């Protein structure tokens, strides 16, 4: 889909989308079209339940020389913000593709008293439309023409298109990076295994200037990353540690570390999962996908920050060499871990990756993302990711960045009573608590035992967020949750 910004034309034609505020307040363009069509718009609204409420639409067909007139509910017009603009762009893209339209014009009427300038509204409409129009259809060989997306041209009309073009140029890397992550997460596990993930990351990220280093099993063995390696030892596929560095900030500023769980497939291992729904576990590298996409985005927009991204890439399989429940390993940190349940593998790979990145890069902050527990989905559903942290300012900045771009977090508790639940009879700790109670919290407690003194740490359990049923700006499937959040957090914290 091509996006273009242009000034107000003398007259509109074709498929046009125009703003309507709450309580049926037609904005300038809708009003003009209504007048020119002898009141067709007002009549259509009266015949419907459309009120102009935020993120709702009403389409009027074949009136007064137009194809499809889409009325876009902006809610209280003065409060039209970037998030609503994205939702509207997404709704238009979805409707256009559903209706077989090739070109649509969206009119950004100036709104008096709105804090968000029209150029930003226009750029975020474009962003929402692009994000929603994502497809992963490379394995569909028999699509009929009517099943394929049709929208080729999105024209956004406003006073001052040049400014909108500049705003859009700043957002375009977001689209490319989110798509990169969605592609990684969507690929089936026979195609995307650790070596292939690392290969694609190297290929795409070196292009934008990220330094990429990949450690293989021999290198990790030498370092002593036994707990990470134990997870992958039941797989034919070799485990990999992907290390990405973007050091474009002040020389003296210690980096921030982003850590991602990259379980390319999670069968559960010897503690094998039930068959129903196991295919979803190709998405168990959503954290690694988000970290990799965020690194791409930071580099593509030349972020003035020092950032290390590290992804532990493994496949959790149950072959004859697989680790057993009861096995005890010595981690890179020197602490020993008893494996009670081989399906609690995320924390096992993360503990060594976290220790490595802290030892080697001395980050001031470390934010880790993982599809870590089913328990967080029981707690928060698919609306918010769980946030666990040892640092309230960091938590607050992450939450603020998330609200700003629409990836919401909810802070969860940590504490010594929870920590005690993972004490082991034979080793320093075990990898699960007793039973399922507080499962996402005991998982976070495990990770916290691998946070070094003085490091501000946050763990985001994104199990409920990495893929979804679809919403205004995300089609069904991989969401790339975390890419924009991490980028915004770094922009807000380290670049001003
Ligand atoms: N990858 C899963 C967590 C998960 C479950 C993510 C459902 C997305 C949807 C993780 O490795 C896992 O298996 N966790 C176990 C932990 C348990 C064995 C303590 C779980 O949540 O059941
Ligand atoms: Mn598991
Ligand atoms: Zn897993």
Explain what the structure shows:
The protein is an alpha/beta fold and 496 residues long. It folds into 2 domains: 2-159, Leucine Aminopeptidase, subunit E, domain 1 (3-Layer(aba) Sandwich); 175-494, Zn peptidases (Aminopeptidase, 3-Layer(aba) Sandwich), CATH 3.40.630.10. 37% of the residues lie in helices and 22% in strands. It has helices at residues 28-36, 40-46, 82-99, 118-132, 161-186, 194-207, 217-223, 226-232, 286-300, 346-361, 374-380, 392-405, 416-420, 439-448, 483-494; strands at 2-6, 14-21, 25-26, 57-61, 66-75, 103-107, 153-157, 211-215, 240-247, 256-266, 306-316, 328-330, 336-338, 365-370, 385-389, 409-411, 429-430, 456-461, 467-468, 477-478. The strands form 4 sheets. The protein has an 8-stranded mixed sheet with strand order 8-9-11-10-14-18-15-16, sandwiched between helices. The relative contact order is 0.11. The model has no long low-confidence stretch (mean pLDDT 97).
Would you summarize the structure shown here?
With 496 residues, the protein is α/β, with parallel strands linked by helices. Helix content is 37%, strand content 22%.
Our count of domains comes out at: 2
Sketch the major β-sheet. Answer: 8 strands, mixed
User: Using only CA atoms, what is the Rg?
Assistant: 24 Å
**Poorly predicted runs of 5 or more residues:** none
Distinct ligand kinds? ligand BES, manganese (II) ion, zinc ion
What is the approximate shape? elongated
Q: How are the strands of the biggest sheet laid out side by side?
A: 8-9-11-10-14-18-15-16
Reported by name, the CATH topology of the largest domain is Aminopeptidase
The CATH architecture assignment of the largest domain turns out to be 3-Layer(aba) Sandwich
> What is the residue-averaged pLDDT?
97
Protein structure class: alpha/beta
What is the CATH top level name of the largest domain?
Alpha Beta
CATH superfamily of the largest domain: Zn peptidases
| Helix residue percentage | 25-40%
Number of helices: 15
Indicate the proportion of strand residues. Answer: 15-25%
Distance N to C terminus: 34 Å
Quick one: how many beta strands? 20
